[in-house]
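Sample intake sheet
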Amino acid sequence: MSLVQHVDGLALAPPTALALTAAAVLVVDLLVRRRRVELAVGIGLLGTAVALVFVAVLARGEPRATFCLTAHACSYEADGFALALQGLVLLALAVVLPLLTGALRDHRLPPGEAVFLLLSSATGAMVMAAGRDVITLVVALELVSLPTFVLVGLRPGDPRSAEAALKAFLIGVVSTALTLYGASLLYGVTGSLHLDLIAEGLSAHRHDPLAAAAVVLVVAGFGFKVAAVPFHFWVPDAYSGAPLPVAAYLAVVSKAAGFAGLLLLLLRGLAPYVGTWGPVLGVLAALTMSLGNLLALRQRTVIRLLAWSSVAQAGYMLVPLALHADAGRKQMQEASTATLGYLGFYAAMTLGAFAAASVLARSHGALTIEASRGLVRVAPWTAGVLVLSLASLAGLPPGVGGLVAKVVVLRSAVDAGYTWLAVVMAVNTVIALAYYLRWAVVALSPGAATERPFPPARAAVGAALVAGAATVVVSVVPQLVMRAAAGGALG
């Protein structure tokens, strides 16, 4: 085994481009004093576009790996799975950054620091998707999480923001401790930190209670990032305390990073112990979707409704991972495809809902569901995006993308033999109709809760239209998302 490693610069190009962009934003913000908001966001969008070009170039070639000790022990791989999730992160970032423009002005946030933190966290999400050893995944997890703690508490003089940041930080510390403890046990059992070698080591320790404990601890640690019960408590307060674009980022990019790490660990490293983690994730999926939907029914503010909705959606995405002990490579690939596909549909429709809420927030201090009454009269395009996004999240036409996502996940549960879990998901889908349709009906109702005309907010309106267009595309041609998910499947 050689300790001299070849570094593939092209494989590392997408996260490197985003990291360099983050540094450039911070430096330019220190040197320029005029139009700082537009400059910071503009540089961020340029860097995002460059990183997306690198992802497209890599997608046209063969998978690449770097930081390899042996042919089966690489720390970073730019394969179909990594590139699919990196593309998702960058496309979501292209919507979140324009949304951030209004929040930076409204809350008088430091533009350079805010965009720097956002890009740094997104860099961690991209590394997470390509990491193939436990150390890389844990470091990427921290790079995703730490900037978001600061972003949540970035509102000056807002006690809710500070409280939300502290709560997210404390729960994040606990989850990191669980992950590190589980990783140390895995190393003790298998003698390796690379996922493929961990899988080989666990195959020789099929009934080791120490290995089973390590698997449970690692899964519990990553449960924080995906907002699975019981690591979900930080979500409603963090979303409410953070600026709306940051909440949108947490709901999409941060969650995507968490699922990337979870899928890699389960399907590449911990596959021999599917009999341990499969049933556990089935129970967690049922609890997460049920609690999220039931508490979303009680919400009267837009952000807390979307927060609990994101918890419920995480439960749906966990359903395909509820596998039996005899699940083979094909079943794991299908589970990965279903989760990745759902994540792609979820990203488009959730960003649309948050973007519409951001436009609405520019006219209201207290953003309640009732405040959107008459939205169709004063901002018809925004109302259209909102209703389409809510219909997609509910799985109703014209949001066919959301319906396809739910059917794929339901079918995966039935195929795996978890009929009871499919029934629980079907019941939860019906429950979710109540609060999604309630908000949509209010937005389309006559009357006007709006007390003053909507400000231009061109960047936010543009971001909402882009997210709405993405929701239309994935509804008209859902096979685009499912093909990308199948191309990035693990197993």
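Comment: The chain has a mean pLDDT of 85. The two ends are 26 Å apart (CA to CA).
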